[in-house]
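Fold it.
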Amino acid sequence: MKAFYSDVGHPASNSAGGDGLLAFSAPSVSVSSSARIAVYEAPGAAPCVEEVPPAPVADFIEAIATRVHRLSGEAGGNLPYTVVREVAENLIHAGFAEPVISILDGGATVRFADQGPGIPQKAHAILPGYTTASGAMKAYIRGVGSGLPIVRDFLVLSGGALTIEDNLGHGSVVTISSRPTPDEVRPAGRPSPKYGADTASVSVSLPFAEPAKAVRPRLSTRQTQVLALVLESGSAGPSLVAKELSVALSTAYRDLALLEELDLIAADGGKRTVTKQGLLFLDELAAR
């Protein structure tokens, strides 16, 4: 592929070689390939596929973000448009090379895959200020390295997850989910890589929960019920939560783990107790 971006009107070359996807001709830059959106309605079933046709860059980004947000919402998801839009804009770094967006998990999980140059330093990609945006890209995006960090911060505070992985062959896969550890994103029991690890997959669902100490976290109704149950019981473990709230033991464990990472509860042997911050959270919630 020829260079995804250089100065508008002046195509360059990257290490991949081959034909370019973008036509750098004044007065506008256009994407010459389509994006495909696959909606997986049931496990084991073939997805419903929609296509976003080629268009000028700004229109193409808008069309992908709008269509993905609508389809994920229709499937039952609640990912905000701004989060979806930030990841759609991130495709600009791949030159929009064969983008495929998968909507999974009842709309709660959206996976953006491309065949671009990939993201070698994944740990840096989720830190503010690190960017590969060229001058031409900045005509369509902010270009200050804030996109994925914004997505990361929102998902962490709302109990969700962000992962960055290598695609098959080359390219990247960025997955966002409103759930902390969806099976489609990370196998059950697999620990999150430590902060700063530059591995093939970087998960930031829980290790980045520290900002919640300064900002009131967003909890689901069930997670709030778990926190209230721990307070009412004095201490609680997964078994009690599962029994009282009629949820699976694995669900109870994940909710408790999330509350502990947000410093709303603390481990006391095999039980959890509400922290001072947890009490403040419940007090503020009751006052609303």
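The radius of gyration is 21 Å.
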